[in-house]
Every structure is written in structure tokens, then in C-alpha cells.
Amino acid sequence: MTTVSPPVATPGSPPRVVVLGPDEGRTPSPLNIVGEETLVKVDTTDSNGLLAAFQLVAPPMSGPPLHVHSREDEWFYVLEGEIVFEIDGERVTVGPGGSVWLRRGVPHAYQNFTDRDARLLIVTVPGDFCNFFKEVSAVAPPGGSPEPEVFAAIDARYGLTTLGPPMQR
Fold first, then answer.
1. pTM (two decimals)
2. Which of 29, 56, 65, 161 has the most CB atoms around its CB within 10 Å?
3. Is residue 6 assigned to a domain?
4. What is the reported pLDDT for 16?
């Protein structure tokens, strides 16, 4: 059950508390980000734009293309499974309880090369990246990614640059 406290001061101010169950998010339904089911756990409006937090299920052979953020720092925490990250040309494998912190400007991608779903938490600072995820999900076919030209236009609005395809073995 979702519990949101009333605003502290004025209408439109962020809630003081947001409580979500394990299968709940801050959007009416999970988002589809490059075929990964994504729950928004902290929306940018919840944090007054300071951060956004997401829980993703990464199916086998899923992951974003190689890209770089110009506006956000990003933290990944692996809850279950094993994820291979490519960070500035180097690969590192991260399992449950492991994390990766990336400052903006660092080229990166990740991929689930296993035969089981992996689960991750991702936090972005600042939180406007949540709106990027919402836009991508709105134009993505079920379980897939938007058309490349559509993805590129959304990237441009949010200061992202796609540098290459998703990781291969």
C-alpha cells in the first residue's frame, strides 16, 4: 500500500514521507526501460529534484547502450543476480550487495549476461532523469526500446549521448 503524507507547507510541495511496498512505484504502472521493468521508488517531485530512485528487473541479455550523462551522477546497487558493467572501456562484474558509483561524464553500460533475471537499484542525482525514464517508457514498444531516432531526440533533451550499442559478450 502506498502512503503519502500531506504536503508540509504549501500545496505542490513534496511529500514528507513516501512508503511503498516491494511491487509498488510512483507511476501508475511499471516503466519499460530498454526492456527492463522499472519501478520509480522516489520521483523527482518527491525529492524536490534532488534525486530519483528506481528498482529495475534486468532480464537475461538486457541492458542499455553505451552512453554518457552530462547532467547526472548515477549509483547502481545490485540486489540479485550478476551484472557486467562497462565503465570507461573497462569491464567489471558486480553481484548481490555490490555497487557502482559514476560521476557524470563517465561512459558506461551494463548487461545481464546470465540466464536469470537480475534486480538493481539505481539512484540519479539530480532527479530529473526520472522524467527521461518516463518519456522513454511512453514511446517504447512492450519489452523493447524506442526507435533510434526517437531515442536520440529524448537523449538530446536530457543531455545524454549514446556512444555505441548495448554490450556484447
1. 0.91
2. 56
3. no
4. 87
